[in-house]
Amino acid sequence: MSWSRVSAADVQPQAWKNGGGTTRELLAWPHAHDWVLRISVARVERDGPFSAFPGVHRWLAVIRGAGLRLFDWPQSVGDEPLRFDGGLAPDAELIRGDTDVFNVMERHGNLEVESAHHVLLPKTPWVGLFTVSGGLLEHGHRAMPMAPLTLAWCEEPVAQSCVFTGEGNAWWLTWSSE
Q: Is this structure's pTM higher than 0.85?
């Protein structure tokens, strides 16, 4: 059991096919071409439809900028992640300029995304933490500093408390195949 981590600052942005923004893919797990989980940070640069991902559950949270509207519902910094059917390909309308979002897609299994401002006792075969502003992740007797816009994850975590200390938004991600 060990933790892996990646910071958005270390990932080159990739342009969207529709030209509406860029994505920094943090993780495609377990394989890049056959993923169950895909986690990224994206910059939405203009109004337009999201790509359709039939059979995929999506979560989206605004992490910088004035926000955007999806399904006629405004999303702003500080809001909990919005969960929606990836096959719907909603139109995104920027509220005022470029907006950065945390984006999670799940193809199979059961993913939970929840605020990281409480202690987590891992009970699933995959656990992740994403932090907007950075902080400190402690699992058992180990501590790992985390830079802003960083994802850390662990496969088969030991059932010891996970604690995150930091400012701003951060989310636990727990996945199981059931």
A: yes
